[in-house]
Amino acid sequence: MKKFVMIFMFGAFSIVAFSQETKVDYKNELRLDAIELFRNTFMLTYERKINEKSSIQLSAGAILKENSAEIKTGGNVEIQYRINRKLKQSSDSLGHNVTVYAAPFIKYRYLDATNTSYFYYTNSLYSYNTYNQYPSGNKLYYFSTISFGTLVGIKFSVFQNIFIDLNFGGGLKYTNTNGYKTDKMADEAYTGVTPIGNITFGFKF
User: Fold this and answer.
1) Do the Cβ atoms of 153 and 200 come closer than 8 Å?
2) pLDDT by residue (tens digit) across 67-109?
């Protein structure tokens, strides 16, 4: 009986020690885009790990901005294929890991503006610098944008399943609109080569 108890206790301690050394292999990530929040966009990203060296992610966002003259609504979607490489693999319980990656992407964004009051005004954005009268609820303009390119980034864990993701890159952007065109990169109406960068916060599960 004594031998049986000793064998049982040894087996139990072995299982506990093995389970403590076993690391959780997280395959899913959910992130919130901090940069898009300043563009009046609530954007969430889901990333699925394919293997140790690659993953695919899908981002979707909703746009909403309203003032005394107009309300802007819309949304965007983005797909990335990430090629990952781990620079640091933590051996502690906090999971301080560092991963770098490169990713081609394609993104679509749509923005629609509708006026919220009955008023007169003139602006080349709407109609050849002439005065126009718009009743409340009338569509003013829209921007339909598609962009694609490549970015590089770094992702590091704060805790075992909490992390920060930073990336930057560039690509080509084409905008279709019934409004105006501009050469300012930060403007919705811009068409051409444009820089891209994001800061996201998320968790693994």
Assistant:
1) no
2) 888 899 999 999 999 999 998 766 555 556 899 999 999 999 9
The residue with tokens 């050394």 is 21
Local structure of 179: helix, strand or coil: coil
Alpha-carbon distances, residue 124 vs 116, 119, 130, 142 (angstroms): 19, 16, 8, 14
Any idea how long the chain is? Answer: 205
**Alpha helices by DSSP H, the chain:** 2-21, 34-37
Taking CA atoms, 118 is separated from 73, 127, 128, 130, 178, in Å, by 19, 17, 20, 17, 21
Retrieve residue 92's tokens. 């502690």
Q: In terms of pTM, does the model score above 0.85?
A: no
Q: Could you count the other beta carbons within 10 Å of the beta carbon of residue 72?
A: 19
Q: Are 99 and 154 in contact (CB under 8 A)?
A: yes
- The tens digit of pLDDT for each residue in 101-154 reads 999 999 999 999 998 765 555 555 554 444 455 555 677 899 999 999 999 999
Contact yes or no for 113/70 (Cβ under 8 A): yes
Please give the full DSSP string across 85-135, using - where no structure is assigned: EEEE---STT---EEEEEEEEEEEEEEEEEE-S-EEEE-TTTSTT-EEEE-
> Collapsing DSSP states into helix, strand and coil, what is residue 178?
coil
- From the list 133, 138, 131, the residue with the least C-alpha distance to 116 is 138
